[in-house]
Design goal:
It is a single chain. The protein contains two helices and no strands. The protein is mostly helical. The protein has one domain. The relative contact order is 0.06.
C-alpha cells in the first residue's frame, strides 16, 4: 500500500519552495548597487540607439 501523505504539509512545502524561487528572482532583480543599475540602464539605452541607427526605413508601408 502507498505511503500516507499529509496534504497540508505537502501544500506548505510547495508554497515555501515557490516563495524561495520568488525571493531568489527578487534578489537578482533588486539586489544590485546603484552603479550596477546605472550601468545596465546606460547599456540598454545605448543598445536601443544602435538598433535604431541600423533600422532601414522604406517609403512604402506594408
Amino acid at each position: 500500500m502507498g505511503d500516507v501523505v499529509n496534504l497540508k504539509r505537502f501544500k506548505k512545502r510547495g508554497e515555501r519552495e515557490q516563495a524561495a524561487k520568488q525571493a531568489e528572482a527578487n534578489r537578482a532583480l533588486f539586489g544590485r548597487t546603484k552603479s550596477e543599475r546605472a550601468r545596465d540602464e546606460f547599456l540598454g539605452e545605448r543598445n536601443a540607439r544602435v538598433l535604431d541607427q541600423h533600422r532601414i526605413e522604406n517609403g512604402d508601408a506594408s
